[in-house]
Amino acid sequence: MKNLKLNPEKIEVELSDFKQKLQKSYQALKEVQQIDVAQSEYEVIFTQDKLRLLYFPGNREVDARCKTPLLITYALVNRWYMIDLEPERSLLKSLISTGQDTYVIDWGYPEAADRFLDLDDYINEYLNNCVDQVTQHSGASSINLLGICQGGTLSLCYSAIYPKKIKNLITMVTPVDFHTPDNTLSLLARYIDTDLAVSAYGNIPGELLNDAYKALMPMRLGVQKSLDISNYLDSAQKALSFLRMEKWIYDSPNQAGEAFKQFIRWFFQENKLVNNEIIIGGKPVNLNAISQPVLNIYGAYDHLVPPSASLPLGKLVNSNDYQTLEVKAGHIGVFVSAKAQRIVPTAITEWLMQRD
């Protein structure tokens, strides 16, 4: 500490500047009336327990559009509206604007009564029923399936079990190999005593998982975020965008205890997916059974699902039409960054149209 020298004049300037930014942030926050998310109009066409199946009709004024319906499966650990966070940053809005009829699974919020729901319930019951409802509602014989993050992993399992029901498969920021050296989240999950956790909590609190995610980048998501907060709030529009993201981050459903235990053990701890060792509801999950076209979208800077965890998919499926799309963004940036908005919706639409 002998070489530490402080410049009083610079400190005074920085404090004055910070005070002005805080005052500006205060004024910006006063202008924010409502933190609205998921603004695209939809119809609920099916419900089961906590689950809702949402239908977003595609723009009928578009002549050249994909006729096969698209079902989007989001992760259980977060809410689906990340893909419709705000009109200017909405993957969902971009898809339906091209005429794509889109369906989204809203998993809802598990309660104490859902403690014993397992992956058999989520995949062979809920997801399978949603696929059947989409085919019935649309009149299609098969559907396109898009899975995001953990939802992508569930979609892989589903497509392996029911390959004839899925025409084209898209995975986004989806973990496949859970034991790559740079997968920090997986390293953390390997030390979870799942029996003890579920015994103590029943359902795993969403707040607990949020703390685990923040622990992966403690400075950036903790101290640095607090210090930089005035930069996110220097206008009403920027403040609203920031608060929408915060709302999504902290809107974390509790996790059904049994499903959580199975997912952590089979995928994170035992890495059974890449070895075709998973059996769900008596049905084997063999990725080699996936022979339909596959588009694998990943974030180059994803700290939750690094590229090394997603890319092995190409060697595990039996598809002659397997493609990847790298997005120069992080886990969430794949959906909301300006660069992703220019690239991802167009890439998905064109890829599906070519295989319709």
TrEMBL record:
<dbReference type="InterPro" id="IPR010125">
    <property type="entry name" value="PHA_synth_III_C"/>
</dbReference>
<protein>
    <recommendedName>
        <fullName>Poly(3-hydroxyalkanoate) polymerase subunit PhaC</fullName>
    </recommendedName>
</protein>
<feature type="domain" description="AB hydrolase-1">
    <location>
        <begin position="89"/>
        <end position="336"/>
    </location>
</feature>
<dbReference type="InterPro" id="IPR051321">
    <property type="entry name" value="PHA/PHB_synthase"/>
</dbReference>
<comment type="pathway">
    <text>Biopolymer metabolism; poly-(R)-3-hydroxybutanoate biosynthesis.</text>
</comment>
<keyword id="KW-0012">Acyltransferase</keyword>
<dbReference type="Pfam" id="PF00561">
    <property type="entry name" value="Abhydrolase_1"/>
</dbReference>
<dbReference type="GO" id="GO:0042619">
    <property type="term" value="P:poly-hydroxybutyrate biosynthetic process"/>
</dbReference>
<dbReference type="InterPro" id="IPR029058">
    <property type="entry name" value="AB_hydrolase_fold"/>
</dbReference>
<keyword id="KW-0808">Transferase</keyword>
<keyword id="KW-0583">PHB biosynthesis</keyword>
<dbReference type="GO" id="GO:0016746">
    <property type="term" value="F:acyltransferase activity"/>
</dbReference>
<dbReference type="InterPro" id="IPR000073">
    <property type="entry name" value="AB_hydrolase_1"/>
</dbReference>
